[in-house]
Structure formats: C-alpha cells, structure tokens
Amino acid sequence: MSNDGVTAVERALAVLDCFKLGADRLSLADLSARLPLHKTTIFRLLNSLVRMRYVVRHDDGRYALGPRVLYLGRVYERSFRLGDLVLPALKALSKESGETASYYVPSEGQRLCLFRLQPTEGVHDQLVAGSLLDIDDSATGQIFHVWVRGDRRMATPDELPTHSSGLYNPFTTSWSVPVFGDQDQFVGALTLTGLAPRVEPEAGRHGASLMKHGRALSAALGASASWCDTIYGPEGA
Predict the structure, then answer these.
(1) Residue-by-residue pLDDT tens, the chain, 237 positions
(2) What are the E-state strand segments in the chain?
(3) Is the pTM of this model over 0.85?
(4) Cβ-based neighbour number of residue 186 at 10 Å
(5) Of these four, 47, 63, 92, 104, which has the most CB atoms within 10 Å of its CB?
(6) What is the DSSP letter of 46?
C-alpha cells in the first residue's frame, strides 16, 4: 500500500495553514500569493472547505476559518488528557504571578504552545495556544536546546529557570523550566511571560513559583522524586 497520500487533501490542508494571527481573513488573491497553486485550484478547494464548514466566506468576499476547525480543536483538547494535569498548574502559576503561563511540547523539530492561560486584565503578549515556534534563544527555546537537541549540559538547578528578555519586543520577558514524565523523560516546558517593567522586579518570586510548579507537574506526570530533586533542587529547600 502506498504512503504517498492524497494530493487534494494536502492542498486543502495547506489552504487552512495560511490562516494565522494577523491574517485571519484572507481574499482569494491573498491565498494565491501564499500558495504555489493556480487561483482556480484554490477557489475549488475553498468551495469544498466552505461546504464542509472548515472555512466561511464573508460578505466582503474574504475567507476565514470555520466552526468545524474549532470543533476538532475541542475534540483534540478533550482527548488529550494531559490537559487535566497541565491546566491546573497553569492556572495556579498565572494566579500567583498575575502573568501568562504556557506549556510547550516538542513538535516536528519546533516547539508547540499546547496550552496557554492569560489573565483577563492588564497588557499581555498575543501568542495563542496552537502556535508553532522555532527553537530559538527565548527562555523556552533554551530549554528545548538542552533537553531536545542536547546542545549543552545544563548544571541544574543552578541555571533554572532559564530567562530571556526583549527577544521579540523590548517589553516582554519570560522564564521557563523543563517538565518531565514517566521514566524521567523530558515532555515539555513550563513558561511564565509578562511585561518586563512589571515582572523583572519580582524575578526571584516568579522563579521560585515556576520551579515549584515545574516540580509538582513533573511528579504528577510520573517523574521520580530523585530526578525532581536533581532538576529543581531538594523539595522545600
């Protein structure tokens, strides 16, 4: 049996991948500029996607993602039981800090923001859950450099949490710690993000909170107590 797949399906999914933050409504011309496909082919794909409710066509002629995409996202979220453990940790971390808490996992050589909780008040960055990002020099990227790519050994816990500031804009700063699961295997990164002038003065408190929740989440996911001591330091220290 061939593993080649179906070209039409792959093209339709490529159309869906064109919709992003800041580009959530696209015209046929916009899509044509983004895809290596003839405009007529894109138009036919859009018609099929509209019929299946994966795309909607607005009165101005532009297209946007449809309700079926949200439905599949909800199905995925509910079937992925990791959320039952991660989301409470994010809620606690965000409540303690008043800032944005995120959980990242490896995905196709990059890092996927799988869950993200953001306070309803105040100014915060606009990254959303589902974003796929490069393994860069951000606090989260540093974790992935070490635990996914093995770029260097980290003298834990002294070098945790990792920290970055002003990487994407001069106002945002973040800290991150690795999270481990069964057999002490790396499974993701827990990250706290906020406006630098607001959070930097509280760096010590935020770092301690992040380490505490990183340890608790790792233990809940199956990491051994001895490994948690190695990564986060002795409990209660």
Answers:
(1) 556 678 999 999 999 999 988 889 999 999 999 999 999 999 999 999 999 999 999 999 999 999 999 888 888 766 667 888 999 999 999 999 889 999 999 988 899 999 998 876 655 566 778 888 899 999 999 999 999 988 876 656 678 999 998 877 778 899 999 999 988 999 999 999 988 888 888 889 999 999 999 999 999 998 999 999 999 988 765
(2) 55-57, 63-65, 100-107, 110-117, 132-133, 162-165, 172-180, 186-195
(3) no
(4) 19
(5) 104
(6) H
